[in-house]
Amino acid sequence: MKVLVLNAGSSSHKSYLYELTGPLPPTPPTPLWQATIDWSGGGQLVAKANQARQERHLTEAERPRAIAHLIATLTEGNTAVLENWQEIAIVGHRVVHGGADYSQPTRIDADVKATIRDLCTLAPAHNPVNLAGIEAIEQLLGDVPQLAVFDTAFHQQMPAAARTYPLPYEWVERGIRRYGFHGISHEYCSQRAAQLLDKPLDSLRLITCHLGNGCSLAAVQEGHSIDTTMGFTPLEGLMMGSRSGSIDPAIALYLQRQHDFTPDQVDRLLNKESGLKGIAGGDGDLRAVLAGREQGDERAQLAFAMYVHSLRRQIGAMLGVLGGLEALVFAGGIGENSPDVRAAACGALEFLGLRLDAAANQDRPRDRDIALPDSTVRVLVIATAEDWAIAQACHRYWQAELA
Fold first, then answer.
1. Fold match between 2-150 and 198-381?
2. 38, 111, 151, 248: which one is catalytic?
3. Is the predicted pLDDT of residue 68 greater than 90, yes or no?
4. Whether residue 39 has pLDDT greater than 90
5. How far apart are CA 91 and CA 389, in angstroms?
C-alpha cells in the first residue's frame, strides 16, 4: 500500500510517499518520493524521486494551490512515481493541536476538521496550515481516507498535577490546561532510544529534547510523557528561534497597559520577534548565532548563553520530575546538528556521572550513543522521523479499520 504523508509547518511543508508491504521495518525506509516547499525562501518547491530532482518557484499565496503543485510532482516530470491517484491508499497529516479531544490518530471528518479549526487560536502558526493541507487533499484526491496524527496526543496521559495550571478551577474545566506539543517526535525518539539501548521502553526514564526552530522537552517514564515544557500553546517553555518561551505573564499586561499593544501585537512580539531572533537579530537561525558568537558579536554571545541557560534549567526540571535518568536524547534540527548545544547542555550534568565523548559529539552522530563507556547516563542523538511515525500510524489504522 502507498501512504502519503503531509507535514505542514509554519516555515515549510514536507511530504513523503511510502510504499509499505509486509512487516514494518524498525527504522525509516527510503521514501518513493519526497518534496518540500520552503515558505521562508519565497515558496521554493523541491521534489526528489527516481534519483532525480525537480525545482519550482511558486508564486501562489494560497497554500492549497501551492500544495497542489507539490502533489502534482507525484505524477509529472522526472519525479513521477504514480500512474494515477487511486494508488494512494491513505493520507496522513501532522496536526499540531488536537486539544483534549484526541489521544490517538483519528480519521478526518467534518467534526475533526471543525475541532482543528476551532483550535487555530491556540496554534495560530500551525493549525491553519495543517487544515489547508487537509482541504487541498480533499480537492485533489476526493474521498481518500485521511488520518490526523496529533502532536498533543502523546502528552494526554500527563498526570493532573503536571497538566493543570494554578488558576480558578472553573477555567480548568473550560479547557485551559497544559497540552504539550512535538508529541510525534518525542514518542518516536523514546521508542528509538529503547531500540538503541536494547532495553524495554517501560524500564526507561528519558528526557527527550526536540530542538529546532520550535523547542520542547519531555520527561518520559515507562513509555509515557509525564511532563513537558510546552503548555496551553507552543509558546511556553524553552527559548526558541523566534518564540520567547516562558516569561513573566505580567509582561504582556504591561505592554498592553503602558504601551497600548493590541493582543495581536503581543502575539506577534512573543511568537515571531523574540527568542534567538529577538536577542541576536537576524532570522533566529542558531547557525547564524553561532557564527556571530565566534566573531565576537556580543548579542549573539548573549543569545547563545540564554539559550543554553534555558535548556539546562528545563532539563533540571524534567530530571526532578523523573527522579532519575537512563538517557538524555537530542533530536530536531539543532539537537541533531549542533555539537556546541549538546556539549553545553551535558556539561551541566556531570554531577550525575554523565560523561560525553567529545570526539563522538563532533562526528555528526545519527542514531547513536555519544556518551563515554563509563558514563552513568547515556546520551543519544536520534534523527527524529515524524513523517515515518505518521506513515506507521496510517499503516496500523489501515490494517485495523480499512483492510
1. yes
2. 151
3. no
4. no
5. 13
Buried b / exposed e over 304-337, threshold 16 CB at 10 Å, is bebbbebbbebbebbbebbeebbbbbbbbbbbbb
The structure's pTM equals 0.94
Q: Please give the C-alpha separations between residue 294 and each of 288, 289, 298, in angstroms, as whole numbers.
A: 10, 9, 10
In the numeric block, which cell numbers belong to residue 211? 530542538
37 closest CA partner among 62, 20, 19: 62
Indicate the domain borders of the chain.
2-150, 198-381
Q: Is 151 a catalytic residue?
A: yes
Residue 63: φ, ψ to 5°: -65, -40
What is the rounded CA–CA span in Å between residue 255 and residue 267? 11
Q: Quote the CATH superfamily of domain 198-381.
A: ATPase, nucleotide binding domain (3.30.420.40)
Residue count of the chain: 403
**CATH, range 2-150:** 3.30.420.40
Which H helix or E strand runs over 34? strand 33-38
Whether residue 61 has pLDDT greater than 80: no
